[in-house]
Amino acid sequence: MPETAADLERFTVVPARALVVVAHPDDGDFLAASVLAAWVRQGTRATLCVVTDGDAGSDDVTIPAGELARVRLAEQRAAAAHLGVDDVRCLGYPDGILENTLDVRRALVRVVRQVRPDVVVTMDPTRHWLDRGYLNHPDHRAAGAATLDAVFPSARDGRAFPELLRKEHLEPHKVRYVLLGATDGDDVAVPVAGVDLEAKLHALGEHRSQFDAGEMGTGVWQRAREVGARCGVEFAEPYRLFDLAPGPSQRVAAEAEPGPAILGGEPPPPPLPTTDWG
Ligand SMILES: [Zn+2]
């Protein structure tokens, strides 16, 4: 096999709290299952938030409304259990027609402020296609866009959706890191172990209403090995990283606040200078 250049930085932060936001039941297991398994093994408390109900995920139009949603949520909970994740939330928006509305953003701000994650993982909202044979699902883009908009600026601003603070007592929360998956702009990789890839395959295997995961093993192992080679470890998963550490002029105020609760790992190098817009 040709030697691959190590072109991905290792992201070794182990967050105290992690939040994964995806469009459909099963997306989270393609996007982040092995990483969640790895983090949970190291002490992370993880939440998986599925924005739609998954009720459009079949060609069979005779299935009664709501039935597939019920089945898929049960599959998602069973899948998450393989990763050690017991906090699975479904926001219940209709599958197939998700838009990045203020209502969706408010719902995600609520989740972010409740979970108070150090790392949020979601789907790249800019990706309209992956290759000749795969147009990206618009729900994936909408869920990713709404998540980014919830993280910044609405979750951190007490004056955004003021009813969340006033009525639900949800204090603003600043997310430190965002990892975008299903992207062609990967710049970091999260190391995982073989047991985490096994957990991912068990998780994928639970989505029986959607696909047969029996054939997926080879691809999962091979891809993780290829990504691992790009960052100098055996196995890894690729993402695009955003480090939302405060910019220089915000740093004085931020120093008075406690930093994110990170359990371990080396933090990535300090961010490049950023603007202070918005
Ligand atoms: Zn999906």
Domain module tally? 1
Helix content: 25-40%
User: How much strand?
Assistant: 15-25%
CATH architecture: 3-Layer(aba) Sandwich
Element order, helices and strands?
EEEHEHEHEEEHHEEHHEHE
The oligomeric state is single chain
Major β-sheet profile: 8 strands, mixed
* Spatial shape: globular
Number of H/I helices: 8
**CATH class membership:** Alpha Beta
- Ligand list: zinc ion
List segments where confidence is low: pLDDT < 50 over at least 5 consecutive residues: 271-278
Estimated radius of gyration: 18 Å
Arrangement of strands in the largest sheet: 1-10-11-9-6-3-4-5
Counting DSSP E segments of at least 2 residues, the number of strands comes to 12
In CATH terms, the superfamily is LmbE-like
Brief account:
The protein is 34% helix and 21% strand. By secondary structure, it is of the alpha/beta class.
Which helices and strands occur, and which strands form pairs?
Layout: E1 9-10, E2 14-15, E3 17-22, H1 27-41, E4 45-52, H2 67-83, E5 87-93, H3 102-115, E6 119-123, E7 129-131, E8 134-135, H4 138-151, H5 162-166, E9 177-181, E10 188-192, H6 194-205, H7 217-229, E11 235-243, H8 251-255, E12 262-264
Parallel strand pairs: 1-10, 3-4, 3-6, 4-5, 6-9
Antiparallel strand pairs: 2-12, 7-8, 9-11, 10-11
Helix pairs in contact: 1-2, 1-6, 2-6, 3-4
